[in-house]
Amino acid sequence: MSAHAMAASPTGIASIGLHFPSLSMAVEELAQLRGQDPDKYTIGLGCEEMSICPPDTSVVELATEAARRALDRWGGSADRIGMIAVGTETAVDMSRPLSAWVADHLGLKGAIRSYEVKHACYGGTLAVRQAAEWRMSGAAGDQAALVVAADVAMYEEGDPGEPTQGAGGVAMLIDEPRIARIEPISYPWSEPHFDFWRPVGESYPRVDGQLSLDCYKRAAENCFKAMIGKRDPEAVLHELAAICFHVPFPKMVRKAFYRVGEFLDLNAERIDGFFQEKIYPTMLWNRLCGNAYTASLWISVAQALKGLAAGERVAAFSYGSGFGAELMMLEAGPEAAAGAWEQDVARDLAGRERIDAKGYSELRGAKS
Ligand code: CAA
Fold this sequence. Notes:
This protein has 13 helices and 15 strands. It has 368 residues and is α/β, with parallel strands linked by helices. It has 2 domains: 183 residues, Peroxisomal Thiolase, Chain A, domain 1; 151 residues, Peroxisomal Thiolase, Chain A, domain 1, CATH 3.40.47.10. The protein is globular. The site of acetoacetyl-coenzyme A has 26 residues, from helix 2 and helix 6.
């Protein structure tokens, strides 16, 4: 291959599309159904609403529509797409990748590497990293990658995880860094544990709740520790415009950031200050859609990037049970300020039909 073909390409997010299903339910409705104090869900877990799929919507529709929106906004030619990577833990087949359904619906075929990535909620981030590193290596030439993170999070009825449920999809074109440049260095951490898993053939996840909280916190601590290195932690955090996390439920993020802050020797007031200023606002859309597993971090990143001036930096912490985690750094590009993808959120989240406890029970009955 010529030296020219192997030249590294400027790499980042060139376009974003989001998609949420058409139903929602307030967690207070679920609390009533399960005989729980609603404060446990709203204050204890920090949850507000969950996005719910009607019977005719699956992860295929979420991934495909998010991808369609990202492609429309990208404006590039489909023959420049050399990779379709879909991160999900809602696989519809043990063999055929979800990317094949997306490609089929969007009419994409040809000299394309098309595959699915699985590592619980971390799968979407792995897909982003693979696409970015493919371009940074020079192997992609002028080609772009379509990356999708999409999931439907459903727990067994009555499971403690039920109030954290949600669904959604985020798609991104990894190409020129028009919305955000992806920094080449990232900070991974993994340890093998059974904190949350779904055995083959089972419909719902099994969870060791307390272990999953401990694993998430330890992963966050180690990733931030590596990112900050020997620098002054306050100065590093202060310099970031936003700090995004995977959001299984909002209180988890607060717990994890407290662990990071304590490790960095910050007092409670400073930790709270950073949390309120740089983290809580990034979870606005997550609080309305619930946990969308692989999409969860990227929903938060999409919210955080919207409105940033070019050059402002964002940290993005990904966690997937099992477990694998990675802290990525992004720098806003010229098209972040316009935040074109916000219209997807306005259309889908605001346009949802709200169901009550009775409607939810009927839906679950219909699904099981
Ligand atoms: N008013 C206010 N707060 C209340 C309350 C009330 N009436 N009753 C309880 N609470 C508080 C509790 O004190 C607790 O808060 P603290 O942890 O700050 O003390 C909080 O509400 C939750 O109460 P419990 O710990 O008793 O809740 P639980 O055990 O029933 O369920 C859970 C919590 C285990 C996290 C459960 O939601 C779950 O299994 N979730 C799925 C697993 C998960 O999300 N893990 C996160 C890390 S793993 C990951 O990130 C991957 C992923 O996406 C799943």
